[in-house]
Amino acid sequence: MKTNKYKLYFVVFILLVASNIYAQKQSKQDTVCKTKYPIILVHGLGYRKNIIKSYWGKIPAKLQKKGANVFVANIDAFGTIESNAEQLQKFVVKIMKKTKLDKVNLIAHSKGGVDCRYMISKLSMDKNVASLTTVCTPHRGSFWAEVLIDWAEEKKIKKISNFLSIIAAYLMLDKNPEPWLAYSQLKIKNMNEFNKYVLDKPLVYYQSYGCIANSNYPNKSIKHNQQIINDYYGINDGFVHKSSYIWGDFKRVAGTEIDTGVSHFEIIGFTNLTKFNEVNFFANIVIDLKKMNF
User: Fold this and answer.
1) What are the helix (H) ranges across the chain?
2) What is the percentage of the chain residues whose pLDDT exceeds 70?
3) What pLDDT does residue 23 have?
């Protein structure tokens, strides 16, 4: 009987040790993305938060599970840089009040990165932004903004194009849509002028990421876009070329590790056509921000 009793004690002891190790592991996992300041995800042009599907896919929920304090900005889908920057400023102030912290980390996709830069530089928000991470942002302009706007003006369909875009904007509940101007601001010439007067602020850490789609990409439209941009500007994500999305401390080009590459919208989980893991990609961004005490 004593032997059985000791065996029972031993089993209980092993179970307690195992459960403690598991709890510690879970606790560590749950805080791996817990940054000093909250994370605000900022969307790009043409879509916004959860109208039909989530712009950011599974990313916000998964980051939250890993300990991040994540908020999703809900600015206009078809707003100008200036208008969206003002909306974003109000959202940032709201989040600071909610979290009782005086700074945030901004992670922005596509045009959202330009909106963030304007807010930081021109709306005196540099003291409230610890870091800005831009992903596939056309800092030096968009080839397609250039081509499509010029084509629409040449074919004299500017009015109808703008009218259809405004309808789309109101369906997405935009407050102040100006689609034609929003597109035009991303022309290469206009962004070059933008960069002359919207200057980075020394209080803010700026970093950037991009991705590359290639000739094996499974979507024909993206593959076609990629090939055209490649002829003019080299590697790109189907919408933005590498030399345009590099800004501040450039970290890396995502997608080189898989044979299809990664497209402009795949990197945020809006589409899922390849083996790319967008959650791990964004989790690693946040983990790095945590290491830098942001």
Assistant:
1) 2-30, 59-65, 81-99, 111-122, 143-154, 158-171, 179-185, 188-197, 220-233, 242-245, 278-291
2) 88
3) 43
